[in-house]
Specification:
171 residues, mainly beta, 3-stranded mixed beta sheet, 2 helices, 35% strand
Length: 171
């Protein structure tokens, strides 16, 4: 700790004559260390170990929606390579395993399927008929756009299928 005696000459416990010269070395604090630059992409436990080796601790973790595996470090504050006081804490953004559901309302069925699959969701398609809307367009989705869900969850989309009645033959 800062302003504490860390060593003396002669060493503590040594008998000296009255009026002898004693040299004290006073700590100026814990010194500086560097935030490891390789934390992003590591697991939380891997990051914790690297920080410990650098003389740092995790002061906070923030879960963040991401397509990365849960527990993956996405960002570090202060950033890797920064010089900070040894013993300080860093903040890690960690992949929660959740991602936001994309907005597919008004898109075609194929576009909606593609966007949902690319966002790591399983599209569940149901059909309804609304003569006031275009054919083959997403009328509704559940859950709503922007809701945070676990990767691989199902998203139900309702596709408009306009049914044109067959003409009835008259004899």
């Amino acid at each position: 700790p800062k302003d504490r005696v860390i060593t003396s000459n002669p060493p503590a416990g040594t008998k000296v004559s009255s009026g002898s010269k004693i040299t004290l070395i006073i700590s100026d604090g814990p010194g500086e260390t560097t935030v490891p630059a390789s934390l992003v992409g590591k697991t939380l436990e891997g990051a914790r170990q690297l920080l410990l080796e650098a003389g740092l601790v995790i002061s906070r973790t923030n879960p963040v929606d991401s397509e990365q595996p849960p527990g993956t470090v996405l960002a570090v504050r202060p950033t890797g390579g920064s010089s900070i006081t040894a013993g300080s804490g860093v903040t890690l953004d960690i992949a929660s395993g959740n991602v936001a559901v994309p907005d597919v309302l008004g898109l075609s069925e194929i576009d909606a399927r593609t966007i949902l699959i690319q966002a790591a969701f399983l599209p569940r398609i149901v059909y309804a008929s609304d003569p006031n809307s275009e054919d083959n367009i997403v009328l509704a989705q559940a859950p709503e756009p922007g809701v945070s869900m676990i990767v691989g969850a199902s998203v139900t989309v309702t596709i408009n299928r306009i049914v044109i009645p067959e003409p009835i033959a008259t004899p």
